[in-house]
Structures are given as C-alpha cells and as structure tokens.
Design goal:
This protein is of the alpha/beta class. It folds into two domains: about 60 residues; about 300 residues, TIM Barrel, CATH 3.20.20.70. Helices cover about 25% and strands about 20% of the residues. It is built from 13 helices and 18 strands. A hairpin with a 5-residue loop joins strand 14 and strand 15. It is globular.
Length: about 450
C-alpha cells in the first residue's frame, strides 16, 4: 500500500528519481524507487506498523526558518547545497573538517579518512570559514572534526580564533587515541576551550573495535575517558551501531555511561549509514528508530522505555530520537518531559542553548557568574543529575529522502561551497563517488 511520495537518488548514478513509501507485506514501511537505467531499489525505513509511523510524525515542530543568504536553486536538491533557497532550516551544528589525516584506518568511516593526500586547513582558511558562518547566520555550534582533529597541535589556537569571531561552543569529535596516550593533553584541551568531547565509543568488547575500527581499542577508550575526567572535560559517548556487530551492546554502553555521571553527559547513538568507506554491506533489515528504541528498552531492562523518546524538532522527526533523564536519589532514572528545544527546535538559537547546557554540563546562571549562591548550586546539581540519550539516523544513497534533507540542520562548512547538509556532503554512490566531498 502506497502511503506517501518523495524524491530520492539512484544508488548507482546519484540521479534524482521519484520514490514512494509503501507498507510491505510484513507490515513494515519501505522506500521504493526506480532508476530507468539501473533498475529498482527497495529499502526498509521503519520497522513498525503504519500507525506508529504516522504517530512519530506528530512530533514534528513544523514551520520554516530559511537560511540566511541562501544560494539560488539551479539544478535542484540535492545538487545546489550551500545552503540553497529550497532549504527549510538555518542550521545549528556545523562541522569544521580541520584535517583529513587520521591515526586510525577504520573499515567504517564516512569521511574515508586517510585515503587522500594529507591536508590541513590553514588558520587563514579556518578564519574564512568562521567568517562565512557568521555571514550565514552564526554563531553556530562548532564541531571540530576531520579526519582526526587531534592530529593537529593547534586546536587551542583554532578555538581562540573562533571565540574572537563570536563562537562560544566547541565540540571535539575524536577517536580518543591522543587523549589516552599523551599525558596532559586533556588538560590542554580543557584550558584551550573545548566544551565537550564526543568520543567514538562502539562497545565494551575489543572484537567490536576490530570490526569497525580495525584494531582493539577498548583500553584506549577507557583511558581517554579517565583522562578527560581528571581534566574536568565532559564526555559524550558516540557509538556507531551496526546490525550483527554491536547492536547487542547498547545496554552495556548505557550502563557504563550512567555509572560515570556527571562526567559522561550522555550517549549519542549513530546507527550505521552506508556511505564513505564502509566495509559492511547494507542488510535487508536495516536499523530503524523503532528497532533502536526496542533495543534500548530491552537491554536496559526497562530503565529506559521506548515511550520516553521523541523525534524531530528542526530536523525531520524521522531523522532522530532523544530523551533526557533525571537521576533520582535512589539511583533510578526519571524521564523528563520532552521540550522542543531538547530536539533542536525550529530556532537554532534555542538548540544552541540546550546543547551548551546539556553536553557541556554547565548550568545557565542568571548572572553569568560562577555558582556562588544556593540557587546556582541547585541549578548545577540539577544539570549534574541530567543524562541524555539521543540518536541520529544519517541518510545514504539507499534511503535518501529529499524532504528530510531539506530540513537538515547539521552542516559541513566548505570555503567554496558554503554550508552543505551532512547527508548531502557525505553522500556516495555504490562505487564511493561523492557529490560534494573532495
């Protein structure tokens, strides 16, 4: 049964083609599309019935906030990103890819790091990117990324440059190798202005790391977390979840994180997307939002329930899920009411406020000073006992939905192209050819 239509791309040639959303014989929801040259494609997009699929859409915040200084539409989505005049969001989180170098060679890497000639952006180039972002509606939340950004020695200088231009939140996306191996490095980053470390953390079994990262890394991850704790540097664990590899480990990861509150602020789950360098084949039963929520509830033995989670906000509700919890005195977790700003609502400024408080673990004080009053101490205690679980389902050539893409608020910044939605920038065909990434 056809339940909706959208536009997608052919996984072989990346040509724009019409796509339909259908209820399959098994009751799940699929995307079906046909390229006249390369044939038909069918991809699972929702493992659940039509009622649950439509109910999830009710979490849509609605509305449009058009990008500042959007580029004109010529070829049409997804070929005119920059952001173009057809885009429906002004952006929130922006990745600065500081280098394409990496100290790992992961079998799974959206950026295909290490395959190109080594290149670092100069401080001058980074400065131009900061300026471009301010012209396009900044300050946005900055994600220092790569490659592996800690391959550079000048992250504090890069952050200082960003602060001088008006940016306030700097997230470090890292595999944690240098944080673990170099004494004093975590302290250097904390003093240099890193707001939070988003640490690649795929499980508590080295076999998982051998499959996804090419080598055992569990001891490295543990050491990186401990070094960040000693430096007072907040951490969010970021597992890439692949079916049959580590989808059985989410409960362990969540318990590991909860035991280390408030230093670990939460877990941000990224079900695997099949783009860039990916040594795993896409299975017939891909990971979907309903499956992820069932896994979380089952593996936490009901400590976190499917009904605690909501989706969407600024982004399409089918792009994400999230829930925040308050740790009670007896150690149990109470789900907090969902707020639009929790899920990056229509205004990116609201999203920045939420992200800054929750991921950095710093309460927003009325006077902007340190916690000196009883009220300030109470606010900080509340933040310390708050824990967030979120997930982002990035799109690839198999399930790309341009209606979703037009609402993407996570962008890659490119000096020549401008701001490009993450899923467009990293989109590759079945042979690894990219639309944007060079």
């Amino acid at each position: 049964m056809m339940i909706g239509k959208t536009t997608s791309v052919c996984p072989v040639c990346l040509s724009r083609i019409p796509a339909g959303k259908v209820v399959g014989e098994d009751g799940n929801i699929y995307m079906e599309k046909r390229c006249f040259e390369h044939g038909e494609f069918r991809t699972l997009i929702w493992e659940g019935d039509l009622e649950s699929y439509r109910a999830w859409a009710s979490m849509d915040a609605g509305g449009k906030v058009l990008p500042v200084r959007a580029v004109e539409v010529e070829k049409g989505c997804p070929y005119d990103c920059g952001l173009c005049q057809s885009h429906e969001r002004d952006g929130c989180c922006v990745l600065l890819e500081l280098t394409n170098r990496c100290n790992l060679r992961c079998p799974v890497c959206f950026a295909s790091a290490g395959e190109q000639k080594p290149k670092d952006l100069t401080l001058e180039e980074i400065g131009r990117q900061y300026d471009l972002l301010m012209e396009r509606g900044g300050p946005f939340n900055i994600q220092l990324s790569g490659g592996e950004p800690t391959m550079r020695d000048d992250l504090p200088e890069i952050i200082a440059l960003g602060k001088s231009k008006g940016f306030t939140f700097f997230q470090l996306n890292t595999n944690g190798v240098r944080l673990a191996e170099e004494a004093g490095y975590a302290e250097k980053l904390a003093k240099g202005g890193v707001s939070v470390v988003f640490l690649q953390f795929d499980g508590l079994d080295d076999e998982i790391y051998r499959t996804l990262r090419g080598r055992p890394l569990l001891s490295v991850k543990r050491k990186a977390i401990e070094n960040c704790r000693e430096a007072g540097l907040p951490v969010v664990l970021v597992p890439t979840v692949a079916p049959g590899v580590n989808d059985h480990s989410l409960g362990e990861i969540l318990r590991f994180a909860l035991e280390r509150m408030p230093h670990i602020r939460g877990v941000h789950i990224q079900p695997i997307s099949y783009f860039g360098r990916c040594g795993l084949e896409a299975p017939a039963m891909r990971l979907t939002i309903p499956r992820m929520l069932r896994i979380i509830e089952e593996q936490t033995h009901g400590l976190m329930k499917s009904g605690d989670f909501g989706g969407g906000g600024a982004e399409s509700p089918y792009c994400s899920f999230h829930a925040s919890y308050m740790r009670k005195a007896d150690g149990s977790m109470k789900a907090l009411p969902r707020r639009r700003s929790q899920c990056c609502c229509v205004k990116s400024s609201d999203a920045r406020d939420f992200v800054s408080q929750q991921w950095s673990g710093k309460a927003a004080y009325a006077d902007g000073d340190e916690a000196t009053s009883a009220l300030d101490a109470f606010l900080q205690q509340a933040v310390d006992n708050t824990f967030t679980v979120s997930g982002m389902l990035f799109q690839d050539a198999w399930n790309l939905d341009l209606d979703r893409l037009k609402r993407c608020y996570i962008c890659e910044v490119d000096t020549d192209l401008g701001m490009v939605p993450f899923c467009a920038y990293n989109l590759t065909d079945i042979n690894g050819r990219a639309l944007y990434r060079r």
